[in-house]
Amino acid sequence: xxxxxxxxxxxxxxxxxxxxxxxxxxxxxxxxxxxxxxxxxxxxxxxxxxxxxxxxxxxxxxxxxxxxxxxxxxxxxxxxxxxxxxxxxxxxxxxxxxxxxxxxxxxxxxxxxxxxxxxxxxxxxxxxxxxxxxxxxxxxxxxxxxxxxxxxxxxxxxxxxxxxxxxxxxxxxxxxxxxxxxxxxxxxxxxxxxxxxxxxxxxxxxxxxxxxxxxxxxxxxxxxxxxxxxxxxxxxxxxxxxxxxxxxxxxxxxxxxxxxxxxxxxxxxxxxxxxxxxxxxxxxxxxxxxxxxxxxxxxxxxxxxxxxxxxxxxxxxxxxxxxxxxxxxxxxxxxxxxxxxxxxxxxxxxxxxxxxxxxxxxxxxxxxxxxxxxxxxxxxxxxxxxxxxxxxxxxxxxxxxxxxxxxxxxxxxxxxxxxxxxx
Amino acid sequence: xxxxxxxxxxxxxxxxxxxxxxxxxxxxxxxxxxxxxxxxxxxxxxxxxxxxxxxxxxxxxxxxxxxxxxxxxxxxxxxxxxxxxxxxxxxxxxxxxxxxxxxxxxxxxxxxxxxxxxxxxxxxxxxxxxxxxxxxxxxxxxxxxxxxxxxxxxxxxxxxxxxxxxxxxxxxxxxxxxxxxxxxxxxxxxxxxxxxxxxxxxxxxxxxxxxxxxxxxxxxxxxxxxxxxxxxxxxxxxxxxxxxxxxxxxxxxxxxxxxxxxxxxxxxxxxxxxxxxxxxxxxxxxxxxxxxxxxxxxxxxxxxxxxxxxxxxxxxxxxxxxxxxxxxxxxxxxxxxxxxxxxxxxxxxxxxxxxxxxxxxxxxxxxxxxxxxxxxxxxxxxxxxxxxxxxxxxxxxxxxxxxxxxxxxxxxxxxxxxxxxxxxxxxxxxxxxxxxxxxxxxxxxxxxxxxxxxxxxxxxxxxxxxxxxxxxxxxxxx
Lengths: 423, 478
Known about the structure:
The complex is a heterodimer.
Chain A (H helix, E strand, L loop, with lengths): L1 H7 L8 H24 L5 E6 L3 E7 H21 L5 H22 L3 E3 H27 L7 H19 L2 H25 L4 H27 L10 E2 L9 H6 E2 L1 H19 L1 H11 L1 H6 L4 H28 L10 H11 L4 H24 L12 H5 L1 H12 L18
Chain B lengths: L1 H15 L2 H17 L1 H13 L1 H18 L2 H36 L2 H8 L3 H24 L2 H15 L2 H6 L1 H25 L7 H18 L5 H30 L3 H21 L33 H18 L1 H11 L1 H6 L4 H28 L10 H11 L4 H25 L5 H14 L1 H8 L20
């Protein structure tokens, strides 16, 4: 009797692993920052942040800053251990994340100077594919279809961008083609998971495998023999006048086109999802498809549209890799960014702006590790610089922590992942 | 009917013998097989190379048995029961190969050139001949030339020794060698599927197992092989298992979806091994490769080169048998399958869902680690940068194709081993990149996962509802 009741009961006294994980992570980050401040930075060293137009923006005593940031982290972690933080938690998570990021930045810059606007700009650039991927994920999942195929859609978009940019000798055609091919891959995912009711995780995995093998095959067999695989980079677009605003100008108005598209799409998709009747219907398909059906929304059609539009967006994210960064196609060039984008979506609570902020955080980790590979700051005690491979794992570890610690706190659409059958 | 009762009673008789007698008999059987292993493997390779003959032979044996059982009707019932299960997988593979052929056609430069010059007929001819050439190269690379095998057998009988035969069967041997990591990795994913876990991290677990086995392999010198080899195998397996268990713990304790965590663990293991292989573990500067393992840690080969089939193959078959026994004959296996089929029911029945997730992930990782171990100790004997060859991702297709059944996985693995072994030859002879195999594989997954497509193409109806099938979709937060 007792055995039965205990097994069915929820056990409130049980340790909350999510909280513990996040708390430990914050504690670890805070500890690292404190150690870096105490032993890594010379006393009195300044971290100077500059701007290419204004010169020195501000400089901070690095040791004091690191102590403050690390102390704050540990304080918050301690608070979390003592009591639940309720509604302040989300705000604290975000501010702490950015604060910690800033702490690492100060450590890296300690004793030298860093182009602050340039850093923000590269963070924004690195966040572009992640944001676009997160937006794609949001579109799919708000409508009730789980999409782990963002990686595959991006990768095939990347190949399409290279191929069509080469064929038409026009990088913009590449961008368009990337989007369309992303949409086609999404359509396969949609048909498999909506019409054939294939498990959506399996169907997404199929897209990923197909994209990985297919892009390599096509690249080897068609693009390379035809000399099409290096179309070059698309370059930045400078919006006149606006780009001359100090600090903000170069950050926001002097960027590759995908960055502009990303910024605009974030605004547009946020508006469409939350402020239009169409968005309401679409969200209803993810939350309660039967109710949506009852009031006349065609659930599966809605899901098709959302998934395919998501694929179009993901495809643009794929075009970023060859057209903005390397100017050529490389095998598996998306390097798991599609999955990191999923984590950004989760951290952003299935919200376009949230996804954008989370992507900025991941983008910062990426930009910082690139900076660290150049500056090679020396670790205290060990007297070696961190191997770049370690730094490259940072986004992946962050993704695991986010998925493990934040999911379940943030609420996914209720009916996602379940095929809808009319009765 | 009387004969059938006889055979039944024979089984019962064996079961009635004392345990030690059965154990001694089993040990004797194993001992004789080990002694004769070289010949058994050679026979297996010949059988695989001459598979149409083998098939006919099998049918003949079946017919013989059927005369003692129930005649033609019994044989037909037996065959339809077996082939009915194989229908969808077989048609899936066939359709995937056909579509793969179309992909080869439509990506051929020469075809487009002929098309551009207006020679439609020639373009079509070229297209078909190219596909035929590619698939012929694939077959020959994977299964060898049956006629040369037959002639080699006659030459061996004529007194030329084993050499002609080993040369002739190197194709089938290559296929089986390729199928070894596939069997392990496919079992890993299948075991995950059965327990409701989607382990796409096999790739990383393979790398971790491989790395650890090789490290053990070269760190100890002077150990006897009986200790060194099992130690290396065990360490590799456990390393893979622990790496996977991270995802299991996260899933069990926080609900983090294993698909994301295992993929992230993949990337972390790739970066870490890049660092290790081009840094601390690098043997010769600039090679990004470890030193070779000691000879005492080699998985021995059965025959002389060029036949490279090694004991990993037997190990893989043993792992398949062990997995089948564990899943279907033990209480714990039953628990895992229950958790996979319906975690709520499992929880209601008093089974620890969290515990089982961790355990299943660990076992799955062990199997995946063994795939790396068999490669490291049996083939490469070191580990080099870029070791990851996509076995982990292919294994998803294997588990689906084998319906998460160990026997099915072995069959699917041999098929994929054949494809992969042949693909290399196809690339060198017909200039078709090996990645076509990956495309074929993903098509196989599509068809297996959505049998409605296959049924629509070939116009037949579903026979009965699918048996227990794990569900992976409980959202990201479970």
